[in-house]
Amino acid sequence: MNQLNLNSLSVFITLYQAGSTQKAALKLNRSQSYVSKVLSKLRDEMRDPLFVRTTTGLEPTSYAKTIAPKVKEALALMHSALEPELFDPLAIEKITIHLAAPFIIPIGKVLITQIRHKTPAVIELREWNPLSETLLLEEQVDIAVHALKDRPQSLYQKKIMSVSGQFIGNRQGEFVKTIFDNYNEYSGMYQLVNADIKPSIIIDSQYLSGQLMDEHYTYGLANDDEKKNTPTDVAMICKASRRYSAKVQWLMDLCTPIVKQAPH
């Protein structure tokens, strides 16, 4: 017997229950000729008439009566297997998010609060680091927020906004370069604005950068509606194969408006 498709088996069960090609066609919202054609093909593949025409309608053969309960159960299992993943935030055990350093301080507390309102899960919110991409691929991190850039195809990136850079702090002081992992280790966006500026202090702490601004200055995210200075696209990032998972979709929908509240 050749491999049967689900549509053919669904027609068989509907015929079995309806007792006529006309009634089955109405239930399936298909033409009577379509049902008859499928039945003819089923008879050839199963090498059995399956149904015998009588004065009261189609009477199933003994073979049809034997296989009908099994086919019905198999179809139910298949439909159940193909149903969308059931998702309940209250049942989540842990949520792990990695944020680019400039977002941790402005939105970290709000993000944790909003997630806690939705779920009792353990929340792990960490700064993006050199292992973040690997952890995303290993599914140890659910989603991340970072610059939209060239990454492996196994990672999905969804642009959510653009941010702009500006010089902030005390311009009479020294220039401080704040390094963000996987973003500006070997370059400086400030050089596109003023190529003559050279950093005399280099740090990798956003918190420390904020403490230094009374005496020194840096180049960082700031409100700039026109996005004139070195605009950078920001993306939600996840493992490509998890893009449509209920948990990831829920987290992205929850986190996106919060991320957009960050200074930019």
CATH architecture of the largest domain: 3-Layer(aba) Sandwich
Helix run count: 9
**The biggest beta sheet, please?**
5 strands, mixed
Distance between the termini: 64 Å
Give me the side-by-side strand order of the main sheet.
Answer: 4-3-5-11-6
Proportion of residues in β-strands? 15-25%
CATH domain topology of the largest domain? D-Maltodextrin-Binding Protein, domain 2
What do the pLDDT scores average to? 87
CATH class of the largest domain: Alpha Beta
Short description:
The chain is of the alpha/beta class and 264 residues long.
Can you walk through the features of this model?
With 264 residues, the protein is α/β, with parallel strands linked by helices. It has three domains: 6-82, Winged helix-like DNA-binding domain superfamily/Winged helix DNA-binding domain (Arc Repressor Mutant, subunit A, Orthogonal Bundle), CATH 1.10.10.10; 89-162 and 232-259, D-Maltodextrin-Binding Protein, domain 2; 165-221, no CATH class. Helices cover 40% and strands 22% of the residues. It is built from nine helices and eleven strands. The strands form three sheets. Strands 4-3-5-11-6 form a five-stranded mixed beta sheet. Strands 7-10-8-9 form a four-stranded mixed beta sheet, with helices on one face. Strands 1-2 form a two-stranded antiparallel ribbon. Helix 1 packs across helix 2 (21-28) and helix 5 (101-118) crosses helix 9 (246-259). The protein is rod-shaped. The N and C termini lie far apart (64 Å).
Strand and helix layout:
Layout: H1 6-18, H2 21-28, H3 32-46, E1 51-54, E2 57-60, H4 62-82, E3 94-99, H5 101-118, E4 122-127, H6 132-137, E5 143-147, E6 155-163, E7 165-169, E8 175-178, H7 190-193, E9 201-203, H8 206-212, E10 217-221, E11 232-239, H9 246-259
Parallel strand pairs: 3-4, 3-5, 8-9, 8-10
Antiparallel strand pairs: 1-2, 5-11, 6-11, 7-10
Helix pairs in contact: 1-2, 1-3, 1-4, 2-3, 5-9
